[in-house]
Amino acid sequence: MANFYTDSPELKHYLSHPLMKRIVELRERDFEEKDQYAYAPQDLEDAMDNYDKVLEIIGEICGDIIAPNAEGVDHEGPTCADGHAYYASGTEQNLDALRKAGLMGMSMPRRFGGLNFPSVTFMIAADMVSRADAGFENLWALQDCAETIYEFGSEEQKQHYISRVCNGETMSMDLTEPDAGSDLQSAQLKATYSEADGCWYLNGVKRFITNGDSDIHLVLARSEEGTKDGRGLSMFIYDKRSGGVTVRRIEGKMGIKGSPTCELVYNNAKAELCGERRLGLIKYVMALMNGARLGIAAQAVGISQAAYEEALAYARSRRQFGKPIIEMAPVAEMVVNIKAKLDAVRAILYQTSRYVDIYKALEDISKERKLTLEERKEQKYYAKLADSFTPLSKGLGSELCNQNVYDCVQVHGGSGYMKDYACERLYRDARVTSIYEGTTQMQVVAAIRYATSGFYASVMREFAEWKVLPELVTLKERLGAMIARYEEVVNVVVEQKDQEFTDLMARRLVEMAGYIIMGYLLLQDATSSPELFTSSAHVFIHWVEAEVDKHTGYIGRIRPDVMNYYRKA
Ligand SMILES: Cc1cc2nc3c(=O)[nH]c(=O)nc-3n(C[C@H](O)[C@H](O)[C@H](O)COP(=O)(O)OP(=O)(O)OC[C@H]3O[C@@H](n4cnc5c(N)ncnc54)[C@H](O)[C@@H]3O)c2cc1C
To answer: Would you say residue 241 has pLDDT above 80?
Structure first.
């Protein structure tokens, strides 16, 4: 009987963060639903207790059902027949278990049948589900698309669709097309309004759509004839019950085999406009993708946790040269590094989730009443932090996850290359985390302005004011010295006033910023739970120092002649 919540005390730690009080207060509107719903919390303590209990149930489902099914699902995979996608049998069982436990639409308001859980708790759940089976997390976490309908849909759409999601129907987000991947403003799927029928029809092709045969689709389509850019795109809701979309094929993928990735053909598919015309990409997809990017950060963390468990167990049991390989320093280093990078990414994932929770709750409240000046300031402050931290969580989290699964396979030696061990699947599953929901390069594009504008440096300086345990002060001082070196190279890049040079150096600047920030967050975690995080704080900050040396050295020594080779490639 495994429980992925109770066996990882790190997860519970994130529920104890001081900002949780504000998050619950805002989310529960001072507990106004306490007499309306039997399961609505009475107070802060009751809310926290409720989160804890529900996460324990999810932990049990992950340990007892989803994880044991993962290997079978990886072998069986989904199938395509008669224009539809069919899940592997293990995937059906997983979905059934979560539906029966009422764990669909977790973050939706109670009036639609949801649990009204904040992002922090939803991400803890996604973290555990990903550890159990990363491919399955894709299907289950797509319930988050309901958030877009909640934010931008009409009241009628909310009542109709969100309730269905809370009852267990699944969703997909249909954005990518053969010629529109990173560059979504090139999307061509055509939306035509029929005056006679009083509705929209969609025609065209979408590809690489996760869970493409879902019940409810959010679709990005070109509603404004003659336009070529993002301003001609709108967001639509397609209901599978209406018909008109067929699954042409399911992609044969390297990993995450449990989730069907579909090519879809829209043939006069009836659809409803969601929100206003022309805001599909500019506003709604951006909001949708920010939420989904955090979900991928959680996926990366969950895979890293699984990699850590596998590496540690193998290194303890495998003997060479007369002793367990964990007793050999180079092997121990790999295992310890996996844990440190895992804890660092978790720290930024949950910090970002807290920011998202506060700014979104205030945004929601602003639809009910005018925010006070203080609240408006608070909303703006956290919205900017959420926006600047999301690409760091997703971009760096997925890259570190890939480093972790690489090391996990290495710890296993030749066995790691064989299908007999879970690490082989983790290695394949991890690869896509740095590709979908915007590649790492696109996360860097989203993050770089916060580096060059000095925003990340100002956040670091704010974090540097945090009090830490006396035994962590030296680590904090080392991080302080890194801020100065980071700012120096940011200036070197900015002073060039050369966009191409900035583009070339951007990844290094963003990595440094993200790692230093994660270092501070780990110190904060190690201060409140030293037994859980002190080791990771030491190991990670030492590693960050070496990364800062590498990147500052690279940027400081780059010469125009080398630059020219990159420019000519
Ligand atoms: C398994 C899987 C599931 C997916 N699920 C979904 C889904 O559910 N819904 C959906 O809509 N899409 C989905 N996608 C699509 C995914 O989001 C895209 O594959 C991804 O955004 C990249 O687009 P692309 O594949 O066209 O690559 P391209 O955009 O062609 O990129 C190729 C390379 O160029 C780089 N590049 C492109 N533009 C820039 C730039 N401006 N600056 C720097 N580098 C750049 C990229 O980083 C990449 O290295 C899925 C993809 C996969 C693999």
So the answer is: yes
Helix (H, G, I), strand (E, B) or coil at 469: coil
Q: Which residues of 256-280 are buried (b: 16+ CB within 10 A; e: fewer)?
A: bbbbbbbbbbbeebbbbbbbeebbb
Considering Cα of 316, then 536, then 394, then 4, what sign does the dihedral take? positive
528, two tokens:
């409140």
**Cα–ligand 1 centroid distance for 433 (angstroms):** 11
Ligand 1 pocket member 494 (CB < 6 A):
no
Q: Which residue has the higher pLDDT, 30 or 365?
A: 365
Instruction: Kindly state if the Cβ of 94 falls inside 6 Å of ligand 1.
Output: no
Q: State if residue 253 touches ligand 1 by the CB under 6 angstroms criterion.
A: yes
In the chain, the domains with their CATH numbers are 9-163+282-434 (1.20.140.10), 171-279 (2.40.110.10), 446-568 (1.20.120.470)
Label the pairing between strands 319-320 and 261-274. unpaired
Torsion of CA 275, 280, 283, 286, to 10 degrees: 130
What's the rounded Cα separation, in Å, for the pair 49 and 111? 21
pTM > 0.90: yes or no? yes
DSSP, collapsed to helix, strand or coil, labels residue 439 as coil
Q: Rounded to the nearest whole angstrom, what is the distance from the C-alpha of residue 468 to the centroid of ligand 1? A: 40
Q: Is 185 in the pocket of ligand 1 (CB under 6 A)?
A: no
